[in-house]
Structures are given as C-alpha cells and as structure tokens.
Amino acid sequence: MATDPYADPKLEGVSIRSLPKVSLHDHLDGALRPQTIIELADEIGLDVPSTDAEELADWFEDQSDSGSLVEYLKTFDLTTAVMQSADGLRRVAKEFVEDLAADGVIYGEVRWAPEQHLGGGLSLEEAVEAVQEGIEEGEDAVDRSGRDIRVGQLITAMRHADRSLEIARLAVAFRGRGAVGFDIAGAEDGFPPSRHRAAFDYLASEFFPVTVHAGEAAGLDSIRSAILDGRALRLGHGVRIAEDLEVVQQQGDSVLVTFGDLARWVRDREIPLELSPSSNLQTGAIAAWGKNLEDHPFDLLYQLGFAVTVNVDNRTMSRTSLTRELALLAETFDYRLEDLEAFQLNAAAGAFLSVEEREELIELIGEGFDA
C-alpha cells in the first residue's frame, strides 16, 4: 500500500488530524470503506471491480476523476447497491461515524437519500431508523474510545425524482430523532430547486433547516433558485458564486473585485459555502477557472469574506479526508493554523444546531486550536 503523505500532516508543528473539525457536506453513500463494500457485495452476490481493497480504492478514484458530475455520480451505483438492507445501512453508518472521529471531526452532518435504499424491501422510515441506529452505535463506540462526536442526518431528496415533498415530510417526522436538516442532490443541471417548491414551502412552514446542492454543475441561476425557492440556509458547494464576481484589478496580493447582487447577498448574509476542493476538481465545477487546486476560487472567496467551509463531499470517490483537504489547501494557499480555525468556526456557525449548541461547538474549536 502506498504511503499517504496526508495521513498525518503537520502545520506549524501541529497535527492537522488532531485539530477539532466540523463536517457539513459528507455523503453516506460516498463514504464507504472499500473493504466494507467488498464484504457487503459478497453477502449479496454482487460483482465488484476488485476484491482487493486497495485496488477498489484505486478504481473509485480513477472513475471519479472524469471532469463531469454525471460521470462522477455513476460510481454510486456500486455503493448504493450494498446499502439496501437494514444491516448494511447500520454498518455503513456506524463506520462513517468512526471514520469521522478518526479524522478529528467533533460534529458532522451526514446526507443521504432514503429513496435510493428501498430495493431490499425497507420502507423509508425503516431506512432512516437503520441509519440512525448505526450513527448511535458509532457515537457510542467513539465515546468508549475516550473521544466525543455528534452526527446528525440531512435527509435528502433526489432532484430528478418526484418524491421531494414526501421526503420533506419524512425529514420533519424524524426531527428530534436524528434528522437535523433537508437537502436535494443528484444531477443539478436541468433540475433546478424551483421544481421542488412545494417541498421547500412545506419545510419553511415547519421551520426546518435546508441546505441545497447548487453552484456545482450549474451556475448562478441554480444558486438564485436555491435561495429564493429553497430558502437555503447553506449552499452545497456553491463554488460557482464566483461567476458573479469580476476581478477588475490585481496587484500582488491586492485584488479589486466588483460584486454582482447575488454574490453580495450570499457574502453579506454569511450564507455558508460547503466547498469541497478535491471533488470540485473531479467534477469540473471549477472548469471556468482551471484544472488545478491553485485555480480554485476558494482563496478568492475566503479573502473577500465569504463564509467558506471545507468538506470532503465523498471520501471514497475522492479518496480523501477532511484532514487531507485542509492540508492541500494549506499547502496550496500558504494557510496558517488561524485560517484552518476560521474554516471550522464558519462551519460551526452554519451547523443545523440550536444557538446554544453552536456556541458550545465554537468554544470547543477554540479550545482545541489554542491547545
């Protein structure tokens, strides 16, 4: 197995992995351990590209590095196939929590679409209950190891389907039983949030938090619809908000930028951007600016005062971790510990928690970075 240079990276002599982190954009069906996929596939007689965990990890990374969100999403056919039973969902959810904790995450939100996990005969409610059981088993295991973590579910509807109102009602029904928010995911281009206005109206009437995938495979119109039709409190990715910025002058580190109305609204309202650097490269979300991490508008958005957060999107497909994403950003943009702390504070402030819980989370982050 090749050595991962980002397994335990240091910044200013401090292990990035040891720092307290908040994960807001992390898909359950994009975060399976390759060995778990192999074992679950064997149980149901499903063929996999390789029965060697390292080779299967290679396959996911190669297939995902296509420059197209549509092609990237095809890799989920395999992961969702082994998540069609209560036992499979419980195991994946438990390991998800354990892997977050091992990455230094103290609060995470896991998004997944129950409607994609009914092939084994589960009902929507049974699927959500199975994932919640796995989350709680994972939290208990982490607690026994002497660490603390809390994970909430973001119940997700597929934007190309017609079940969003049903899924929204499901999410609200599980408020207080694990569900902390709602999302729509899947092929973004051609399926704007406005198609799901009835679901978003219902969620607004129930005062239930919403994040929306927008500004990844589609541009400003998608972001505008997420805010106006979806009442999104956060933007899933949202990287293409940079299309509403015009750099009019740049001298050294000084940049003069003019804002469009949408970009100014997102910045001034401190609407968190759930940026996922490696994934954004793989799916071509930053193609307008380039193909390398240094081309990513992450640093521009950060310097302009947007509420940027750092996320993995899909750990398996991008073969990454939150630690690795932070290390890559620090290496590329010469960030210091105070910058990494700012990203975590942004994420904590945007978490779908009560104000008291967010304040506690912010305090824990401060203490961890000070230590």
TrEMBL record:
GO biological process, one term: inosine biosynthetic process
Record keywords: Hydrolase, Metal-binding, Nucleotide metabolism, Zinc
A Gene Ontology term for the protein's cellular component: cytosol
Cofactor(s) annotated in UniProt: Zn(2+)
Enzyme Commission (EC) number: 3.5.4.4
EC class name: hydrolase
GO molecular function: adenosine deaminase activity; metal ion binding
UniProt superkingdom: Bacteria
Stretches assigned to the Adenosine deaminase domain: 20-365
SUPFAM superfamilies tied to this protein: Metallo-dependent hydrolases
Family indicated by similarity: Belongs to the metallo-dependent hydrolases superfamily. Adenosine and AMP deaminases family.
Stated name of the protein: adenosine deaminase
